[in-house]
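RECORD TYPE: inverse folding
INPUT: structure tokens
STRUCTURE:
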């Protein structure tokens, strides 16, 4: 395929990651799958063209691979109901800080990108960013990454905005190993992500909950105003 784009997907071995991989392969993209799991599975038309094994905290070691990616989809995460302090630490590290490290690293790469094609990064947060998910550690971590992405996007300088597109994916409950009673199917969600994220919209909302479609745009609008004030009155 001429001018074939390369897509990187973290959490590529998970339920949604597999569906996104299949979809992008069908659309003619080259897919690089990032996973914590074993990568000895057979490579075929429904798997990534290449598997990369990685660990949270070692995101910087992936720079060489990220430089070859046009669209990076941050899809990894955990959902653990344990009340132990270690669970809070792991949730914040994996669901929030790891994704923020990827975002910063990809921003750095985009700044030095000489291609006319803008780099894109799509970050899967969750409606748990502001709505209850019956899991405090999950809600805290999603709230953190949601705020970090919003501020990062609104505070980008003009030159970086010309080279990097940031999109936030807000998902409701879908069926997966982590949530077997989810309302939506991962296949449906992956198709909607592709349809909406290839538009010019920053917010990609996919959920049966009507409140999400009202609350998230309002939240992002107030974040935008707040950041404009910071720009205006910064020393």
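DESIGNED SEQUENCE:
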């Amino acid at each position: 395929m001429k001018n074939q784009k390369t897509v990187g997907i973290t959490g590529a071995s998970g339920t949604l990651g597999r569906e996104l991989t299949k979809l992008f392969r069908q659309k003619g993209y080259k897919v690089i799958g990032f996973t914590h799991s074993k990568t000895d599975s057979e490579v075929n038309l429904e798997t990534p063209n290449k598997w990369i094994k990685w660990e949270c905290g070692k995101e910087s070691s992936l720079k060489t691979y990220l430089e070859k990616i046009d669209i990076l989809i941050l899809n990894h995460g955990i959902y653990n109901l344990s009340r132990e302090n270690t669970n809070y630490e792991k949730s914040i590290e994996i669901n929030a800080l790891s994704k923020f490290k990827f975002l910063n690293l990809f921003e750095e790469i985009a700044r030095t990108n000489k291609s006319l094609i803008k780099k894109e990064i799509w970050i899967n947060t969750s409606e748990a960013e502001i709505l209850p998910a019956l899991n405090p550690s999950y809600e805290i971590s999603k709230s953190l990454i949601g705020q970090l992405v919003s501020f990062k996007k609104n505070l980008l300088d003009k030159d970086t905005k010309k080279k990097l597109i940031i999109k936030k994916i807000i998902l409701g409950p879908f069926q997966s190993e982590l949530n077997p009673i989810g309302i939506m199917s991962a296949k449906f969600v992956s198709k909607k992500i592709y349809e909406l994220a290839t538009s010019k919209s920053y917010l990609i909302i996919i959920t049966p909950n009507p409140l999400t479609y009202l609350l998230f745009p309002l939240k992002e609008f107030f974040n935008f105003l707040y950041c404009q004030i910071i720009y205006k009155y910064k020393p």
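NOTES: The beta strands are 6-10, 30-35, 50-53, 71-74, 119-124, 164-171, 203-206.
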